[in-house]
Amino acid sequence: QVQLVESGGGLVQAGGSLRLSCSASGRPFDSYAMGWFRQAPGKEREFVAGIRWDSAATYYTESVEGRFTISRDNARDNAKSTLYLQMDNLKPEDTAVYYCNALGTVLASTMSYWGKGTLVTVSS
Asked: What DSSP assignment string belongs to 21-58?
């Protein structure tokens, strides 16, 4: 059974830091691109950061560039893979539910998996 489980959310003051983790299990994710998305109250879900399967490239939305860092720890022997998001200098506008995503191709079909999210609240 495929599972993506986020953790590390919470309440933090503006200017503070949090580190989100996403534990991915149930299939090999070392060949999947992975990323973080977020959804603020009343808004659409938006892309935050992404990372290639081999960590050779990372991508960020402009509003978090220079403040957030995405990284991953690919599993060995098909064990769990873990995705991270280090968030520094947090701002109230970063308040949202953060979701982990894994995107890959299996037998020519695109597969996309989502976690259930972790809430980040930044107070001013």
From this structure: EEEEESS--TTSEEEEEEE-TTS--EEEEEE-TTSS-E
3-state secondary structure of 75: coil
For 11-56, the pLDDT digits (tens) are 999 999 999 999 998 888 888 999 999 999 999 999 999 999 999 9
The upper half-sphere exposure of residue 32, i.e. CA atoms within 13 Å in the direction of its Cβ, equals: 30
DSSP code, position 89: S
pLDDT tens sequence across 65-117: 999 999 999 876 656 789 999 999 999 999 999 999 999 888 888 999 999 99
**CA atoms of 32 and 29, how far apart (whole Å):** 5
Q: How remote is the C-alpha of 50 from its chain's centroid?
A: 7
Radius of gyration over every alpha carbon of the chain, rounded to an integer in angstroms: 14
Of the candidates 89, 41, 42, the one whose C-alpha atom is nearest the C-alpha of residue 63 is 89
